[in-house]
From TrEMBL:
Organism: Halanaerobacter jeridensis
Cross-referenced Gene3D superfamilies: Hypothetical protein af1432 (1.10.3210.10)
Domain HD/PDEase: 20-149
Taxon lineage: Bacteria, Bacillati, Bacillota, Clostridia, Halanaerobiales
Name of the protein in its database record: HD/PDEase domain-containing protein
C-alpha cells in the first residue's frame, strides 16, 4: 500500500524549507487555502490542488539588483515556474508520492503563471486553471505578497489544518473529476 504524502511532510522537508521562504510562507499557505476552497467548489481533486498550490512558488528566487528587489527584471526574465516544476517533482518523488500525481502537480506548477511564457497557447486543465486562479487571488502589486512574513510554526499549524480538511473531504468523495488516480486519492492511508 502506497504511503500518503501530506502537506506537512512536504513543507517540513529541507528542500521546501530552503526554497519556500523565498516566496514567503504566508503566500504559499494562503494559495493552498484558496486552492482547497476552489477544489471543493469546482469538484477538482483537493489533494492535488493543495499540494500544487503549496509548492507552486518553490522555484521562486530572490531577484535583486544592488540589494533592492528588482520587480521589472523579475517580470521580464523569471523562470520560476520551470524551476518549480522540476524542484517540486524531485521533492514529491523523494517523499514517495505516486508518480502520476507527482507529474500532475509538477505540470500545474509549470503552468501556474505566464511569467515564463511556457503556458502560452496551452489549454489549461481544471487543476492547472485552479492553481493559477488561487495564486491570482493572493497577489498584490509589485509582488508585495512575497514580502508578508509568518513564522514556520504558524505556517505548520495552518498546513496541518489543511491536511485535516483535505483528508475529510476526499474521504467522503466517490471519485475525483480531475484526478485520474482515484484509487490512490480515495485513499491509501
Ligand atoms: Fe508563482
Ligand atoms: Fe505565487
Amino acid at each position: 500500500m502506497e504511503q500518503y504524502v501530506t502537506l506537512e511532510t512536504l513543507m517540513s522537508d529541507s528542500v521546501a524549507k530552503k526554497h519556500l521562504p523565498k516566496a514567503g510562507y504566508a503566500h504559499c499557505i494562503s494559495v493552498a487555502e484558496s486552492a482547497y476552497e476552489l477544489a471543493v467548489e469546482r469538484d477538482v481533486c483537493a489533494d492535488l490542488a493543495t499540494k500544487a498550490a503549496l509548492l507552486h512558488d518553490i522555484g521562486h528566487t530572490i531577484w535583486e539588483h544592488q540589494g533592492e528587489w528588482d520587480y521589472e527584471s523579475y517580470s521580464e526574465y523569471d523562470i520560476h515556474t520551470i524551476k518549480g516544476a522540476e524542484r517540486s517533482h524531485e521533492l514529491l518523488t523523494l517523499k514517495g508520492e505516486d508518480l502520476g500525481k507527482a507529474r500532475e502537480i509538477a505540470l500545474a506548477i509549470l503552468f501556474h503563471s505566464d511569467s515564463s511564457q511556457v503556458s502560452a497557447h496551452v489549454d489549461l486543465t481544471p487543476l492547472q486553471r485552479l492553481v493559477a486562479d488561487a495564486d491570482n487571488m493572493n497577489k498584490e502589486e509589485q509582488g508585495a505578497h512575497h514580502n508578508q512574513e509568518i513564522e514556520f510554526n504558524e505556517a505548520l499549524q495552518r498546513v496541518r489544518r489543511l491536511d485535516m480538511l483535505v483528508y475529510r473531504h476526499i474521504k467522503t468523495q466517490q471519485s475525483c473529476v480531475e484526478c485520474k488516480f482515484k484509487q490512490e486519492c480515495n485513499l491509501s492511508r
